[in-house]
């Protein structure tokens, strides 16, 4: 059984954050039974089972006797090293305490989410309502356009002037554009306005098919000359195609509302200037 060092570290971080309560939740005496003792500290069956599940993705009972021995050796080695690290004070140095604290927050938040949502699965009505919300927020149009990106407004002005004289957009894009689309004559394919920076999206939306911007368009990337080649109405995905994603959205909103309610009764004091 091949257990990578990074997989071991990740699983052990999880174990360090959740093992105490996990032992109690997973079956009392059986879960707390020591699989090994390292300098007086027990490595429990619950830790062993969790480690196997996290690293191997299967229950400990599915391992061979040899594989179980290898996993236990890995845990023992990691515990020996961890104890020495604590003796050396490494748990209080550098980013280690912060990393451990953040791991605790993340794991407990995930546990809280699972616990809160276990009896609050999205209903079909909630999924349909979320679907309608998402469809309503979708851009109604998609655009197919080309552009030429240059560093200065003067360069863009000259390109516009050359286009008015009959120069080919594709040729100028291939020769002068700084964007990777230059290899396709500046072709950006079909895109939604939300996928573009606002100045670019606004400029495209103001054009008619076949029209080129009469003035350079400035964005954080430089100066654009844009030609709109085509438009089409956005077709929303079917409800069934996005049902799983909708479920995730509904659950995320429910859990956020739960967190918002907790915040209302929490005593929070923020340090001025923080």
**For the report, how would you describe the main beta sheet?**
4 strands, antiparallel
Q: Strand order across the biggest sheet?
A: 4-3-6-5
SSE-based structural type:
alpha+beta
Tell me the series of helices and strands, N- to C-terminal: HHEEHHHHEHHEHEEH
Question: Into how many domains do the coordinates divide?
Answer: 2
Low-pLDDT residue intervals, each spanning 5 or more residues: 5-14, 16-26
Q: What share of residues are in beta strands?
A: 5-15%
What is the number of helices?
A: 10
* N- to C-terminal distance: 48 Å
Roughly what percent helix?
Answer: 40-55%
Q: What does the radius of gyration come to? A: 29 Å
Task: Please tell me the overall pLDDT.
Answer: 90
Q: Label the overall shape.
A: elongated
Strand count: 6
Description of the molecule:
- With 274 residues, this protein is of the alpha+beta class.
- The protein folds into 2 domains: 107 residues, no CATH class; 96 residues, Chitinase A, domain 3.
- The strands form 2 sheets. Strands 4-3-6-5 form a 4-stranded antiparallel beta sheet, with helices on both faces. Strands 1-2 form a two-stranded antiparallel ribbon.
- Strand 5 and strand 6 form a beta hairpin.
- Helix 6 packs across helix 10.
- The protein starts with a helix and ends in a 9-residue tail after the last helix.
- About 8% of the residues have low confidence.
């Amino acid at each position: 059984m091949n257990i990578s060092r990074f997989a071991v570290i990740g699983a052990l971080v999880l174990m360090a954050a959740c093992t105490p309560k996990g032992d109690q939740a997973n079956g009392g005496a059986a879960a707390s039974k020591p699989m090994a003792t390292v300098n007086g500290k027990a490595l429990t069956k619950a830790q062993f089972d969790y480690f196997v599940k996290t690293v191997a993705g299967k229950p400990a009972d599915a391992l061979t006797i040899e594989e179980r021995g290898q996993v236990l050796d890995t845990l023992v080695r990691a515990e020996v090293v961890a104890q020495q690290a604590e003796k050396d004070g490494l748990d209080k140095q550098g980013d280690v305490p912060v990393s451990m604290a953040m791991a605790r927050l993340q794991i407990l938040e995930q546990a809280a989410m699972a616990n809160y949502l276990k009896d609050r699965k999205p209903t079909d009505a909630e999924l349909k309502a979320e679907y309608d919300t998402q469809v309503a927020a979708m851009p109604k149009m998609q655009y197919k356009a080309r552009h030429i990106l240059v560093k200065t407004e003067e360069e863009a002005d000259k390109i516009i002037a050359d286009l008015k004289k009959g120069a080919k957009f594709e040729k100028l894009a291939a020769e002068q554009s700084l964007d990777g689309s230059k290899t396709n004559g500046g072709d950006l394919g079909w895109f939604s306005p939300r996928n573009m920076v606002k100045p670019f999206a606004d400029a495209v939306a103001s054009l008619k098919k076949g029209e080129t911007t009469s003035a350079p368009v400035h964005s954080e990337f430089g100066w654009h000359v844009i030609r709109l080649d085509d438009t089409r109405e956005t077709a929303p995905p079917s409800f069934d195609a996005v049902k799983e994603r909708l479920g995730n959205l509904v659950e995320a909103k429910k859990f956020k509302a739960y967190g918002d309610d907790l915040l209302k009764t929490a005593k929070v004091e923020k340090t001025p200037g923080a």
